[in-house]
Amino acid sequence: MTREFNTVGVVGLGTMGAGIVEVFARNGIDVVAVEISDAALERGRANLTGSTGRAVAKGKLSAEDRDALLGRVSFAVGLPALRDVDLVIEAVPEHLDLKQRIFAELDGICKPETILATNTSSLSVTEISVATHRPNQVIGIHFFNPAPVMKLVEVVRTVVTAPEVVADVEALCARLGKVDVTINDRAGFIANALLFGYLNHAVAMYESHYATREDIDAAMKLGCGLPMGPLALMDLIGLDTAYEILDTMYRRGGRDRRHAPVPLLKQMVTAGLLGRKSGRGFYTYE
Ligand code: CAA
């Protein structure tokens, strides 16, 4: 019998977490949205109201449905608010020790049957799972940015994830209107393993003054039919997140030089140029 997911918890309400909250609540599932502080919670709430407001303005969502969506979300500071949920998705920054600490804590708080999922893009789901006493109920559920718009979800099973947990999560993806691909636990899974070498190469091209940012982006957008150019996409993903993904893939993926983060990327992150979320990255935002 397929498992019921009536209430899910989302940990971390940054770009990805807030988008994931929106996806669940839009599809009739109650969400407990958790952050570590009141300030972070307010930022998360603003991410959610901003995104749903844009959806209403663009005619993708009625004001009534937006209100119903927001009504399904409760906000809380701290993991204990997740004691009754059926599934948790963690979407905090890409640091293994942070994720392991959160999973160990969730393991003690959540019901024994609760599935614990990570939205990690590049870290090892297996290494995260062994921080718990239920590694067979730990899985990767990897959404793409912006989560409410992008259709794909990568479902990542480890060598010990129970087959019924994989099947239940696949059924859940269908309920969310997403298309899932199910893969084993390898750095970058499918999409990022292919995408990030290309994005890194674009930064190297820009760093070497070979072409302007506008021309690099125009070439890929207008010449290759992509929805946006690589530098604009880096700004959307967040340069800090992109750096962490590249660095992890480089270290986990046999030090493939395509994934060695270009020095400019690190410099921009250190200088606080994180892309859209900080107002400036390769481009400047209002
Ligand atoms: N709910 C529902 N629909 C929404 C929405 C929301 N919250 N927000 C926007 N939309 C809709 C818009 O109405 C619009 O629909 P139409 O095309 O029918 O008008 C569509 O989504 C696109 O939105 P916008 O018009 O606001 O923006 P855009 O046309 O400039 O497109 C984009 C923006 C969707 C980001 C597009 O440029 C794109 O697809 N870019 C590539 C994104 C990408 O590659 N993402 C993957 C990044 S890698 C990753 O995420 C992995 C990782 O681990 C980091």
TrEMBL record:
Domain of life: Bacteria
Domain 3-hydroxyacyl-CoA dehydrogenase NAD binding: start-end pairs: 7-185
Domain 3-hydroxyacyl-CoA dehydrogenase C-terminal intervals: 188-285
Membership in a protein family: Belongs to the 3-hydroxyacyl-CoA dehydrogenase family.
Protein name: 3-hydroxybutyryl-CoA dehydrogenase
Record organism: Micromonospora pattaloongensis
Taxonomic path: Bacteria, Bacillati, Actinomycetota, Actinomycetes, Micromonosporales
Location of this fragment in the whole protein: 1 to 286 of 596
